Amino acid sequence: MTERKMPEVLAPVGDSERLQSALLYGADAVYLAGKQFGMRSGCDNFSLDELRAAVEQSHTKGKKVYVTCNVVPHGYELEEIAAFLKACEEIGVDAFIISDLGVMMLARRHAPRTPVHISTQAGVMNEETARFLYEQGASRVVLARELSLTEIAAIRAKTPRQLELEVFVHGSMCVSFSGRCLLSNYFTGRDGNHGDCAQPCRWKYSLVEEKRPGQYFPIEEDGRGSYILNSRDMCMIDRIPQLIEAGASSLKIEGRAKSAYYVACVTQAYRQAVDYEQQHPGAPLPEWILQETEKVSHRPYTHGFLDGTAPGQDTVRGGYERGYEVAAVCEGEENGLLRVSQRNRFFLGETFDVLAPGEKPFRITPTRMLNADGEPIQSAPHAVMTVYMDTPRPIPRGAYLRRIRTE
C-alpha cells in the first residue's frame, strides 16, 4: 500500500512580518507579490530587494516562495511585466502565479526555468482546460472556487498526475466568479482586476422609489440592513480528508492583506490538521484544532461550493465575528521573565490563551508584571509598551497571548 501524499499548506504573505509568521507557524510554502502586478495592492508587498531576502530566508528553512503576477494586464504593461518576471527568476522564486495567458507566454519566454501556476482567476472548472494549460507549460492550476469535491476528483482523475491541483480552503470569498468583478471599477474607478478593489459587494444597500426621490428604503432582514452581495468566509479545515482523497496537492489560505496574527493562527491550524490526518487517517479532528479557526476575525463560515450546495451570503451584517483578540506578542526572555509587546490593554491576573509555534494552545495566568523600567504594574494600557511577566513555562519568541473579547 502506497503512503498517501499529504498536501502542501500554502500561506498568504503581505509583508516581511507576515512572512515570519508563515514560516514560524508551519507553512510549506508562501505566496506573495512584488510592488506591482499582484491582486492585493492594499498591503505593503515586496520590493525586489525584499523579495530576494524573503526567498533566501524561506529556502534556508526549506520552504517555497510563489510570486503572484495575476493581474489582468493592459498591453502597455507587458514590457514591464516581462522585466519583472525575469528579475524574479534571477532571484530564485519557486513559481509564478499567473491568470493571463499572455503573461504566461511572457514567463515562458523571459523566465523559462520558473514553474507557472495558473491562478484561480483563470476559472479552471474542468479537465479539458486543466489539460490544455498543462500542455502549454503550467505545472499547477489553482482551481476555481466554484467547484465541488466531486468535480475536483474528476479533474484529478482525467489529468496528468504531474499536474498539481491547488484548492482554496480558507478566507474571504468574492461574490464574483473566480474573483473577476467590475463593480469596483464602475463605482469608484478602482480596478479590482489590478488588486485595488474597493469591495462594493460589502457595502450596505437601500432602495429608492422613482416617485419619492430622497427617501431610502433599507433592504431589511429581521429589522437590520441586508448586505445582499456580502459573501461568507470559506473554512474547509474539517474537509481535509476529502480534499486529499479528491487529489488536492496544495491547500491555499487566503489573506495577504490580513494581520500577522491571522497568518500565524490559521496557518498553524491547517498545519496541525494536515499532520493529524497523516497520523490518524480519516479520524475526526480534535475540537481544539477546529476552534483555532474561530480565534481570528472572520465572517460566518461556509464550505463554499465544495459540498455541491450554494454557500449563501451573510445578509444581515457586514462586519466580522471577533471572539478573541491579541493582548501581546512575545519577544523572548530576560532575567527569567517573559518580555512581551502590548497590542491591547490587559491586566495583572488575567488568563491568556497562548498560541505558540508547533504547540497545542495552552493557558497562563501571570502573577507579576513589570514595565520597561522594572517597576511593578497592574495593567498595560499603552500601545506596544514593553511588559515583563512571570510565566509557569517557557514561551517562545513570536508566540501570541490572546484572550476572549468582553465587549
**Total DSSP E strands:** 23
Roughly how many Å apart are the termini? 53 Å
Q: What is Rg?
A: 23 Å
Shape: globular
Oligomer: single chain
- Helicity level: 25-40%
Q: What topology, given as strand order, has the largest sheet?
A: 1-2-3-4-5-6-7-13
**Any low-confidence stretches, pLDDT <50, length ≥5?**
none
Structural class: alpha/beta
User: Sheet with the most strands?
Assistant: 8 strands, parallel, barrel
Which range does the strand content fall in? Answer: 15-25%
Number of helices: 10
Mean pLDDT: 89
Description of the structure:
This protein is of the alpha/beta class and 407 residues long. It contains ten helices and 23 strands. The strands form five sheets. Strands 1-2-3-4-5-6-7-13 form an eight-stranded parallel barrel, surrounded by five helices. Strands 19-18-23-15-16-22-20 form a seven-stranded antiparallel beta sheet, with no helix packed on it. A hairpin with a 2-residue loop joins strand 10 and strand 11. The N and C termini lie far apart (53 Å).
In short:
The chain has ten helices and 23 strands.
Give keywords.
single chain; alpha/beta; 7-stranded antiparallel beta sheet; 23 strands
Give the secondary structure arrangement, pairings included.
Layout (H helix, E strand, L loop, with lengths): L7 E5 L3 H9 L4 E5 L14 H13 L3 E5 L9 H14 L3 E4 L2 H10 L5 E3 L8 H9 L2 E5 L6 H9 L6 E9 L10 H6 L17 E3 L7 E3 L1 E2 L2 E2 L7 E3 L4 H7 L3 E4 L6 H20 L7 H6 L8 E2 L21 E11 L2 E6 L3 E2 L4 E4 L6 E3 L4 E2 L8 E2 L5 E4 L10 E5 L3
Parallel strand pairs: 1-2, 1-13, 2-3, 3-4, 4-5, 5-6, 6-7, 7-13, 12-14
Antiparallel strand pairs: 7-12, 8-9, 10-11, 15-16, 15-23, 16-22, 17-21, 18-19, 18-23, 20-22
Helix pairs in contact: 1-9, 3-4, 6-8
